[in-house]
Amino acid sequence: MGERRTEGPALPGGLSVPQFGGLVAAALFLGYGLVGPTPPGASPAIRRVLAVFLLALVLWLTEPVPYVVSSALGVTLLYALGVADTFAAAATGYASSLVFFLLLLLLLSNSISSVGLDRRVAQRLLAGEQTPRQTYRSLAAHVLMLAAFVPSAMARAVTFIPIVERLVDAYGLGEGSGFERGAFLLLGHVNPIASMALMTGGGMALVTSEIVTANVRPVTWVEWAVLMIPPTIALFGLGTVAAAAFSSVDGETTVATADGSGATGGESAPLGTDSPAEGSSREQRLVAGVMGATVLAWIVGSFVGVPTVVPAAAAVFVLSLPGVDVIGTEDVREVSWGIVFLIGAMLSILDVMQSTGTLDYVVETLTRAVPFAALAHWQVVAVLLALAVGIRVLFSTGSAAIVVALPIVLEFADAFDVARIPLALSVLLVVGATTILPFNTSAVLVSMDRGPLSHRDVVSFGLVTMALSLAVVAASWLVYWPLVL
């Protein structure tokens, strides 16, 4: 998620052309911030903040240096260029509960994988299914169920890929079969959608809830579930059906027996697994119990005012205690620190953009360029969603795209009297369902690498899921959300 990409021909020093271009563009933006002309209607502070924002953005997009480095540079420049009075004011984003909550959630997710609890759940898929179509439906159900406990879509994809490969062999299917293509589309494109149902379901949901809390009003864990579970399940279900139709998943072939013939008598051949689930039963029961208690605490806390970060911190503490040792030093090292630093830096930059009037200036400038006042309400929403999709295509993680796009979109919503909570949830649904380029979503990237999918498959089905998300957004906005908001 935070690793450096090296697409394109390499230049001396190991840099790709996009990375070299990113460094050049970053240097130009820095020069503009230092000595460039101030745009009409803006102050020097606004010019410098815009320069830092664009510098950080281009470094995050091209990744010539790790996210941690570019994020630290962006925050430092806010202070060095004088747009923040103190370094503490420049780094306010790192004081956000979102940063710590995301860190705790990553540790909890890793603990589920480290003891093999996710694989044990996934292995249930191997019992008793007859046809590829039936197994495909079971796969979808298990992915959706596991999303409640494993926030990372990437972790879920990695868990199920070996099982899908084993099932392909068991059915005696050739490479690139409809079942295999459908399963990998499900794990890559549809799987991340499941993470949006719960506020604690992953980085995109966490970022969205934090920005809504900071800019609109607080949203509790239970309220989020009420608002998002039905649209998410609808979108996940439509995506599952679309992937099966897109790949023509077979509903006739039965599980192959040892001699290569179809299974008969209603009994499927035992498929087994390539390796047993990691971790002891005791560890798995312990992690399952802690996670169950954590989810219960989130639900109860929504009614009594306990912040969601508190149960997460308590769960990590329990799993780190001597004698338990499920979470250790190595687990902390393996956290995706790059995305944690990126989100903290972007929140810091957004705070400074807000305090200096830069966001208002951007909205006013874009309003002069796009005749929002002449557009109907639904057209304004469509333009804002298109803006969010455009930003999303540039980023390798949905959470990073949302942390950049959503505050700007909400500023427009405030200016043109658009309901901000439905708009924020709509941005999440559309951004979370849109994967046009393989690197846009890590689950898609690993699915394309391990499976039979081509770039054309990724782009074509990404457009399908984006269209489905727009349909679900329209139905939710017009029918469901007015009933519960």
Automatic annotation (TrEMBL):
Residues 257-279 are annotated as: Disordered. It is found in: Membrane. Keywords: Membrane, Transmembrane, Transmembrane helix. It holds the Pfam family Na_sulph_symp. One of its GO terms (molecular function) is transmembrane transporter activity. It is a multi-pass membrane protein. The chain crosses the membrane at residues 20-37, 49-82, 94-117, 138-163, 183-207, 219-246, 295-323, 335-353, 365-386, 393-410, 422-446, 458-480. GO terms for cellular component: plasma membrane. This is Anion permease.
